[in-house]
Structures are given as C-alpha cells and as structure tokens.
Write a structure and sequence with these properties.
Structural class: alpha/beta
Shape: globular
Distance between the termini: 35 Å
Radius of gyration: 19 Å
CATH architecture of the largest domain: Alpha-Beta Complex
Number of strands: 8
Number of domains: 2
CATH topology of the largest domain: 2-enoyl-CoA Hydratase, Chain A, domain 1
Strand content: 5-15%
Number of helices: 10
Order of helices and strands: EEHEHEEHEEHHHEHHHH
C-alpha cells in the first residue's frame, strides 16, 4: 500500500478511494480532508468514471477528525474546513456533492465524520464488527458534517436523536435497523461487497444513473413538486440518448446492454 494518506485506484468505471492512516486509526487530518475531496473531484470530472467506493485501510474506517490539527483550522475558517479546497464537498454540505454515486464500506471504529460521510453516501456496506459513535456532544460541540439535519430525515427523528444526543456507541445491527447501512457482511468482506455493488451500478446507463441520483436528491431536499419539475426537465434528454436506444435494443435482442454514457 502506498504511503499516501489517501490511495485511489481505478478499476474499470469504478474509482476506489481508501483512507490510509491506519497507525492513526484513519483519523482525518488536513491532508486527508484535501485528498478525499480531490478524489471526489476526480470522480466528478472524469466522464469515464461512474461510481466511487470509499473505505479505510487497516482495522478501522476512521476514528474521526484529528482535532489537534484540524481544530485550529476550523476555528479560523469555520466548518467549511471539513470540505477541503475543491469544488465538490464529500459531505455535500459546504459545497455541492459529487454528481455520481458513492458506495461506502465501513468497519471497526467508524466514529463522528464516518457517520456523516455514510449519510452523504448512497449505499453503505458494513462489516459486522463496525462501531458507530457520534461523539461531538460529549466534547462540548455539535456535528458539522450534516448529521444534525440528515440523520433525522433519513433515519427518523427518534433514531437520530438517540445517537446524536447520547453519544453512545452502536453496532451493525442497530445501523441496519435504522437504515444507516444497507447491508452487513463478515469482517474483511465489506470492501469487496461494496465493489460488487458499485460495479452493478457502473454497468447501468451513466446518464440515467446520474439523473436518478440528482432527481432523488431534489425530492429529498426540496420536496415532491420540485422533483416533478426536475423530472419533466431532464427526461426528454435521457429518452433521446444513445444509451436509451441501446437499452431498448438490448431488451428486444434479449442481451445485456452495453452503455457508453452518450
């Protein structure tokens, strides 16, 4: 494994993004924050990349922020320091989110920002040994990566307030029950399963995938009517695409479609 704090690897249409500070329990310092943001920006910019897979190297996904280094930066710049210095914010709070799907694999200690990154992702696979905890309230502060407003909406008010206000730890079974993760696998299998799911997504028509993701976000953030209006706007272009023609042709010919993104 590289000495880089974040390692990226392209596998077909999938970009793997691995946080690589195992000796620090993958705590995010300023270098990690910027490197993750750069990887998300790469995913967003490269038309041949269709899905991102995010995971951690070593025994844990992440213990959270390296507060000794990041704390002064947050005090100076504000919470926007969590987003890095690129046009895309991995947390989708302080800048726009990446326009392509993110599949996340978590294991071991997955504290604070790990939960917020999971809430900002689209599919989350957890190892059965995962340990979630939103610690900020016990440190005299509050989460600033989206948990305060995403968790109540996505997981239910009581489910969210339980871990936001108590700072107690919870595991894979509870995370699955409340919908923070979508699948639980044996420890060591989470990354491969995330890659399998990412490859399934990457095999679909890219324009359709990105439009589906964008429309779902509009509905989540702005309500049904805004989503209906967005759908009316984007659907004609999707129907006129080469991939839509290929999708119909493959159905008639009873074969798997081969999508090009055009």
């Amino acid at each position: 494994m590289s000495d880089d704090v974040v390692v990226t690897e392209r596998e077909g249409h999938v970009l793997r993004i691995a946080v690589n500070r195992p000796d620090k329990r993958n705590a995010w310092n300023l270098e990690v924050i910027d490197a993750v943001a750069a990887a998300y920006q790469r995913l967003d910019d490269d038309s041949d990349l269709r899905v991102g897979v995010v995971h951690g190297v070593g025994e844990h996904f992440s213990a959270g922020l390296d507060l000794a280094e990041v704390g002064p930066e947050v005090a100076q710049r504000g919470p926007v320091a969590l987003s890095g210095r690129y046009d895309v914010d991995p947390f989708g709070v302080w800048a726009p989110p990446v326009a392509k799907p993110i599949v996340m694999a978590v294991h071991g200690i997955s504290y604070t920002l790990s939960i917020e990154l999971a809430l900002a992702s689209d599919i989350v696979v957890a190892a059965s040994d995962v340990r979630f905890r939103q610690l900020e309230i016990g440190r005299g502060i509050l989460p600033f990566g989206g948990a305060t407003f995403r968790a109540p909406t996505q997981l239910g008010w009581g489910n969210a307030m339980r871990f936001l206000l108590t700072a107690e730890e919870f595991g894979s079974a509870e995370a699955l029950r409340i919908g923070l993760v979508q699948e639980v696998v044996a420890p060591g299998e989470q990354v491969q399963r995330a890659i399998q799911l990412a490859e399934l997504v990457a095999a679909q028509a890219p324009q359709g995938v990105q439009a589906t993701l964008a429309n779902a976000r509009v509905g989540r953030d702005h309500g049904k009517q805004a989503a209906v209006e967005d759908l009316m706007s984007v659907l004609p272009g999707i129907l006129a695409s080469e991939d839509a023609v290929e999708g119909l042709r493959s159905f008639l010919e009873r074969r798997d479609a081969v999508f090009t993104g055009r």
